[in-house]
Amino acid sequence: MPDVVVKENGKQRTLIMQKSQVLFWEKGYAETSMKDIANECGFRPANIYNFFESKEEILFSILKEEMEEIVNPIRYLEKEDGDPLQQLRLLIETHVKITLGEKRASKLLFDTELRNLSPERRKVILDLRDEYNCIGYTILKRGIEKGLFRKVDEKITLNLIASMIVRTRLWFSPEEWMTIDDLIEFIFQFALKGLS
Amino acid sequence: MPDVVVKENGKQRTLIMQKSQVLFWEKGYAETSMKDIANECGFRPANIYNFFESKEEILFSILKEEMEEIVNPIRYLEKEDGDPLQQLRLLIETHVKITLGEKRASKLLFDTELRNLSPERRKVILDLRDEYNCIGYTILKRGIEKGLFRKVDEKITLNLIASMIVRTRLWFSPEEWMTIDDLIEFIFQFALKGLS
Amino acid sequence: MPDVVVKENGKQRTLIMQKSQVLFWEKGYAETSMKDIANECGFRPANIYNFFESKEEILFSILKEEMEEIVNPIRYLEKEDGDPLQQLRLLIETHVKITLGEKRASKLLFDTELRNLSPERRKVILDLRDEYNCIGYTILKRGIEKGLFRKVDEKITLNLIASMIVRTRLWFSPEEWMTIDDLIEFIFQFALKGLS
Amino acid sequence: MPDVVVKENGKQRTLIMQKSQVLFWEKGYAETSMKDIANECGFRPANIYNFFESKEEILFSILKEEMEEIVNPIRYLEKEDGDPLQQLRLLIETHVKITLGEKRASKLLFDTELRNLSPERRKVILDLRDEYNCIGYTILKRGIEKGLFRKVDEKITLNLIASMIVRTRLWFSPEEWMTIDDLIEFIFQFALKGLS
DNA sequence: AATGAATGAGAATTCATTCAT
DNA sequence: AATGAATGAATTCTCATTCAT
Known about the structure:
CATH class of the largest domain in chain A: Mainly Alpha
Oligomer: homotetramer
CATH superfamily of the largest domain in chain A: Tetracycline Repressor, domain 2
Number of strands of chain A: 0
CATH architecture of the largest domain in chain A: Orthogonal Bundle
CATH topology of the largest domain in chain A: Tetracycline Repressor, domain 2
Helix content of chain A: 55-70%
Structural class of chain A: mainly alpha
Strand content of chain A: under 5%
Number of helices of chain A: 10
């Protein structure tokens, strides 16, 4: 094993990830073949292996990227002792925006396709999810302490909130009378009242 | 004596469905082979075809059964002009109980594995889902009309509530301090306040 | 892992082994494809997997069978305190006959293709080879003790003798003036004088 | 200035041959990939093609070089009417020394991997082997004529002797009490007595 | 001399399914 | 009801090789 260099996100690597993301979402990981991916990318299956060592690595890269996009913008909230209401809103906003973002791709992936990862890779993703959870727990706990939320179990509550968000990808499509921003506000209000 | 009998739910048929349900949930539909199922059942793959015409039929039967278990107990609510609060509670209760029920199996299936069904069969499942949705919409609409809930979009709201329920299968396990009944009450209260 | 049943040597299993033996010898293990084997057997590649779990298992079965055919008939010599000359002759005779026998197939396999076996399977073959060696060592040692052979290192000597035999498969073809029995006698005499 | 120069044994060419020799021996020709070779050499597979036109050419070059190293030092013996005993000893000595020489590499290659060569290239190697054989035959014949050896078939006898030598690579490793020179002497004496 | 990208061919293997028994 | 044998289609992945740079 030569020193594993984190492969640069070259052009082709990005292309493969984008196309795979869509396909995995539409057809599922197992049902998407390397040929499908190659076809979308405009080259032959064998060429994929110049950029990814396996199909699993593609899945992993996609999941990791998405989880980081969700966690990175809210990571700082955990240490910062700000307004729990605003923090909760930011968490919801970030999560919804990624879930419904231009990529229109993965999602639910992280509900269902983790089993296709090797244990080590699954751990990486699960660690990121844990981080997300911790941030959420902290926000809720502070809100309760400050008397802004009623006394609820943070873990259960965060799961309920995240569940509402995660599945928006399945049924939501933006309309004039209900944009993504409207949806964010709606979910935030729904959760807020649920916590009152 | 009819010629074409809908295959009775014979012993083996039930066995196959139970084992498949668990496997589909654990590994996913595509990742579960007929051999896996047969192994669990204690016979050889070829024998499955004495009871089901295809793997897809197994999936369909499972999904249909589950959807009917969810819809049947609440179907009457749509016609009945009862208390929307109680009705909402019953909807949540039924759905949660099936989702977390003794079977501990399918779930999410109906988020993700519908693509593996033929169009006709997918329609059957989607019709059941539509029925579930209609019941929910009606309950919410009546609640709004009666001034019990604030003015919200019923479709979006029902999706949010169903999402919270569907994903409980992923993270919830009953504890002494939080039984399934406690969880039902919690979700109900959370939704209720969200609607206030 | 279900209890690993030693598969019966059914008809097809034997057929596959015979055809593979020839192909492995002619083209080498790596260069022989499952398609090649299936073609020779008159069915499609997938069917091979009803009888062998992998290509490696075929190789292993062949090698094991051959080694046992060599070792079994002489195994009793080790315990028996008979005439070392006659014993040496029997060892040579058995080994040559298998090597050049009707199978006309594997051989040399066991010089070169062991690397294609899994460690556990390689061990099985190597243990059989060790057994062969021990029998040979014992015969030579007794011969030396009894003053029938000059004082030589048994290990080296046995290696030289076995080498002469193993490679006969590469160059020998029976002729009127030199049958397999003649060859056996010749090698025996050559070794005997070498030991005098 | 010739147009088509037989590629000089430049530094890289030699490096590739050395590394390949080891790999071919350890893993076999078919099982060794150009990537394996390139890795060992410290560059990328594509670069090999600046020095060799194909994988087969590498194999051919290695085999040819080795056969020439064996044949060249004894070629003159055929014409020279010297002492058959001393000549036989030289033949054995040269062959053993190359087989076990510092290269510690190919060997047996020339038993098994000839099938991977194109017909023309196979012929080159086989011609060299024939030359080796002729030299050996001549030596044995002269020895018999001079009454130094008993009346044996030269072809068979040479094959037996060469077989003992070729396979030393498989089992011999030099020890204090048995150096390569000791082994040469042992094989020579063993053959000599066998011929007496 | 060296490399990254690309590819055609082919490898082993899996799998849902069929069918005769 | 149950099974062993058989298969067509597909899948992931490997690999020698080419070519532009």
